[in-house]
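Help needed: design a sequence for this.
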């Protein structure tokens, strides 16, 4: 979508072996709370988050908000001990960030410190459909197709943008990419209005438009997409200890996804070369636990790299298929 916006003369085609609702992005809780990528400079991560927050904030404040599934949500991140980093790098981007009061902390007898703020949440399947609709309106073709090798695209396309998430492990053989399995529950508990996140990152309660997402797990190296019944019970127990009223939650649906994790997101231009033939590629994958939080920022950067590829192609003698 960013490419169609920054380069309206480009003809864009989306190829994917799965579309919504069968992607990792459909499983995500969709909260805008960044996760830190250890090998990406903080100023770059902050810029990604800021661009994403600004973009979604405008949607949440428009007539499109309900169809796009974007809404503001307020709540608390609570800690059993005061964290080293009392002011996270994103504290001046979310709204109204402050330390919790003693009175608020009374709700969480096992926790000693907390942060209160308002952020944005995506209802992921709604948002993905809304994005697809906008892509189609921009004239983008969308085909179901599994790509086994980037070179198979060479005869049809000038530039390939690789947004395959965990699929990049196989497609480009990226051994730095590893799965971090996450199991979440989507429940009916419409009385829960505030988000609650344990600062250890394991337990969270995120109220959405229709359902509340309860999490979670972080199982590094596990490729299993099967729900685990013991884990479901454990998630419910942990969430009930933060919000006892969840004992009345109904209609529990279990979802599992593999976070495409890396020490840094790979937003990078690369020119593949084979027997003197060149194929420009822009990678944009490896968003781990924070894909929603930074998606627009990384997409803007990837679209900029596509612009660089176009300039390079126009400067070369190759016949562009743009
Ligand atoms: C339980 C859980 C909770 C999460 N909660 C949050 C949250 O609250 N906030 C947040 O910011 N992030 C969250 N995330 C992280 C977020 O889901 C990911 O970072 C994000 O979904 C990654 O998006 P993606 O588009 O890169 O990957 P995907 O959504 O997996 O999309 C990749 C696409 O590429 C296609 N593909 C792959 N390989 C090929 C191939 N060879 N040929 C053709 N197509 C291919 C796939 O079919 C798919 O459509 C959560 C993740 C999980 C698992
Ligand atoms: O950690 C969170 O708050 C939600 C999330 O991004 C995840 O489970 O990956």
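Sure. Designed sequence:
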């Amino acid at each position: 979508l960013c490419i169609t916006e920054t380069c309206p003369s480009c003809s864009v085609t989306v190829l994917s072996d799965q579309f919504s609702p069968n992607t990792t992005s459909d499983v995500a809780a969709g909260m805008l709370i960044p996760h830190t990528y250890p090998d990406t400079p903080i100023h770059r991560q902050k810029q990604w988050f800021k661009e994403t927050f600004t973009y979604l904030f405008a949607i949440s404040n428009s007539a499109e908000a309900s169809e796009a599934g974007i809404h503001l949500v307020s709540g608390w991140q609570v800690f059993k001990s005061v964290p080293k980093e009392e002011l996270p790098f994103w504290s001046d981007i979310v709204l109204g960030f402050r330390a919790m009061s003693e009175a608020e902390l009374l709700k969480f007898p096992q926790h000693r410190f907390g942060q209160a703020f308002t952020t944005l949440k995506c209802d992921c399947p709604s948002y993905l459909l809304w994005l697809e609709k906008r892509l189609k309106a921009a004239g983008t073709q969308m085909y179901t197709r599994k790509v086994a090798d980037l070179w198979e695209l060479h005869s049809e396309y000038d530039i390939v943008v690789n947004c395959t998430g965990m699929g990049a492990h196989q497609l480009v053989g990226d051994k730095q990419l590893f799965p971090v399995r996450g199991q979440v529950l989507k429940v009916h508990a419409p009385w829960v209005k505030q988000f609650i996140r344990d600062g250890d990152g394991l337990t969270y309660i995120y109220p959405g438009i229709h359902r509340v997402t309860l999490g979670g797990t972080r199982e590094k190296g596990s490729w299993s997409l099967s729900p685990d019944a013991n884990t479901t019970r454990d998630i419910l127990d942990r969430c009930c200890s933060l919000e006892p009223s969840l004992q009345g939650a109904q209609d529990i649906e279990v979802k599992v996804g593999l976070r495409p994790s890396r020490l840094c997101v790979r937003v990078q231009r690369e020119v593949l070369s084979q027997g003197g033939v060149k194929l420009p590629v822009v990678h944009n994958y490896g968003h781990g636990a924070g894909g929603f939080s930074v998606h627009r920022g990384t997409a803007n950067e990837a679209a900029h790299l596509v612009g660089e590829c176009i300039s390079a192609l126009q400067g070369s003698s190759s016949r562009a298929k743009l």
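Residues 29, 31, 33, 182, 197, 201, 204, 215-216, 259, 289 surround oxaloacetate ion (ligand 2) (CB under 6 Å).
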